[in-house]
Amino acid sequence: MTESKHIITRDQHSVSRKDISDNALKVLYRLNKAGYDAFLVGGGVRDILLGLHPKDFDITTNATPEQIRSLFRNSRIIGRRFKLVHIMFGRDIIEVATFRAHCDSNIEQAKEGMILRDNVYGTIEEDAERRDFTVNALYYSVKDFSVHDYCGGLTDLRKRQLRMIGDPETRYREDPVRMLRAVRLATKLNLSIEPKTLEPITELAPLMEQVPAARLFEEYRKMFLSGKGEDTFKALQELGLLQKLFPATDTLLAEHQDFETFIHAALENTDKRIASDNTVNPAFLIAVFLWQPLLERAHQLETKGMNFNDAFFKSMGYMLSEQSRYISIPKRYSLVIRDIWALQVRLPQRFGKKVWSVLSHPRFRAAYDFLMLRAESDPSLREVADWWTKFQDADKATQQAMLPKNKRRKSKRRRKPKGND
Ligand code: ATP
Ligand code: MG
After folding, report:
1. Which CATH class is domain 241-421?
2. pLDDT at 106 (0 to 100)
3. What pLDDT sits at residue 3?
4. If both were cysteines, with which of 14, 87, 157, 255 could 75 make a disulfide (CB 3.0 to 4.6 Å apart)?
5. Which residues make beta-bridge pairs with 87?
6. 105: pLDDT strictly greater than 70
7. How far is Cα 219 from Cα 269, in angstroms, rounded to an integer?
8. What residues does each domain of the chain span?
9. Which one, of 364, 381, 392, lies nearest residue 417 by Cα?
10. Is 3.40.50.980 the CATH classification of the domain at 1-165?
11. Catalytic one among 37, 56, 258, 369?
């Protein structure tokens, strides 16, 4: 499988030590000094070669996790799918992995071909072969500042293409998350997905169902909170992957033009926030993606005789647990999602004390942003959205003037939020 090894000397590539964090360099030097081979690998090398600034640096070595651990006091062995060492420099963590083999006899495979356990160390060549894309299998050494290319990654980088190492179908079957990584990396790096790498995805998309929901939350974060959420969403939708991640969302998108408008407005907004270094909460987009499904569910319960409020609040729990079958949503985020949704019912009710409790709610800002985005596809929400825009920044006197004068409300029934339908 391995194409001939190419060692590219320092004068023939653009990776230099100044692109690499001091902590990553420290780790590389110390491993070398102790007699081990050590390389910067993966996204770090790839991004530098593309002229980008990598956010994290992964290191790989022939030292075992225990040997690495004994070299760095500030380190700990972590073992999820395989053992890794985290070396801590304050808040900066450098991840070091031992070369891994891809040796059939040591791999436990499910019948669909998915690898269940493969914690076996190997040579650097084997390590390269088990990586996903050729551009991710480039190794940089600080011994002689060379780049080692075992799979043709440099040629692919020059062609600006993302190509799977080995047979794409087999590799997707081993780990279906590679389909998401293909979409995410191609979008993030502006690379085209090489035709043979692209071709099997739609057919194999159902394999996503085998991936643990907890792992998919991390992928969700990377796909949607890295500044290219809108492009990623479109690509996932086109390739049939969205159906496997957010099935209720994907189904309703086809039926509701304004739901699609709402989602794209939210994705565009998130991408802009990231571009200008504003914080983004992973809960927000999930609240957006599940909004129409939530309303549909609530309407269904209403037709069975439940009042809107009960139907709406009951549907919140239902939607979150349904979605968690695909992508698990940590509790701290599902609470935020519930707050954002619940506030959509409260925001239109601008009466007396309620206004102040809404305004001081810790999720007011997120709920207001959510309402503003809904208003982009639903003009009937414009008035209430504009009211809150003005109210939140107004001085006390103006705020008082904006509120109705001690009018007693006739009905206690909460108003139902207008849907994006
Ligand atoms: P980024 O950090 O920019 O999101 P990355 O490619 O560095 O991208 P990581 O998740 O940090 O992504 O993984 C580091 C490296 O580990 C990858 O470059 C790749 O070589 C390898 N890798 C990660 N996930 C897989 C996988 N599912 N299958 C095979 N190799 C993988
Ligand atoms: Mg990385």
Report:
1. mainly alpha
2. 46
3. 44
4. 87
5. 75, 94
6. no
7. 20
8. 1-165, 241-421
9. 381
10. no
11. 56
